[in-house]
Amino acid sequence: MQSTMKAWSVTSLGEPKDVLQLVDAPTPEPGPRQVLVRVLASAANFPDVLLCRGLYQIKPELPFTPGSELCGEVVAVGSEVTRLAVGQRVLGLCALPYGGFADLALMDEHTTYPAPASLDDAQAASLFIGYQTGWFSLHRRTVLQPGETLLVHAAAGGVGSAAIQLGKAAGARVIGVVRGPEKAEYAKQLGADVVVDRRTEDFVAVVKDVTEGRGADVVYDPVGGETYQRSTKCIAFEGRILVIGFAGGEIQSAALNHALVKNYSIIGVHWGLYNAQNPAAVAACHDELTRLADVGAVRPFVSETFGMAAVPTAVQRLADGETVGRLVFQP
Questions:
Q1: What's the chain's average pLDDT?
Q2: Measured between alpha carbons, how far is 124 from 126 in angstroms, rounded to an integer?
Q3: Enoyl reductase (ER) domain spans which residues (predicted)?
């Protein structure tokens, strides 16, 4: 008789609080190049919201269990796995439809890495997507230089908070844009040199003032829409705007004539593609992030952990923009 596990299953598409159902699911079997892990922690990410809504670029067949990244203990390995062993503590991407909001999850060997000993389970679960995205954005898609000004939008979110820490580690001056005083305080704790509460301040004016009219050398934009459009008003000569995503819900159109006359670059960042196109680069990035974590230069800020029963509520709070720091599921 096949064993079962507790898992949150999406059986129809919609808001997380409406479509997540707790079920007794069959324990999955790892494929030849997969590992089965006991979930120690699984960080909630905005892609989990989009998966529930059916709006993410990856659209798994129903039903599926979300939870995009995790830290876990390997309990079984596939027949062709060579890098990982039973009992090892690992982090990385989940292999849908068997995501991290469950007792057990599947992971593909090529997107699974040793978890840094310097991080606890919740921190390690938060190191992969946001920090990899930030590192590839700031060090591969562009080359952030010491002394440059980095403008980070949604600076209290998962990818934004990682960008603050990575920007400071690279020697940049970081301006973080947030919504509300609680998020502003969080961005300061992360190390942002200047924090803008967009509810009460105009980030364009602040950037111009702080840089004496020059503007931001690099803009890190996971929001899109009007945020992107306004960022073009405070981008420096030879600046770079990194297009990370569209959490604001509106995909902007770029005015290329404006980019021409102001001499700035618009750079798209789809980190997930590197896992298939250049996994060696992802592995090298993980090694660097592990080093930075070990020396204390980066450390995911986990504001809250939650148990099995609270998964729909927590993911809905993330969807509604009500969270500060990382929310992490721990069974």
A1: 95
A2: 5
A3: 17-329
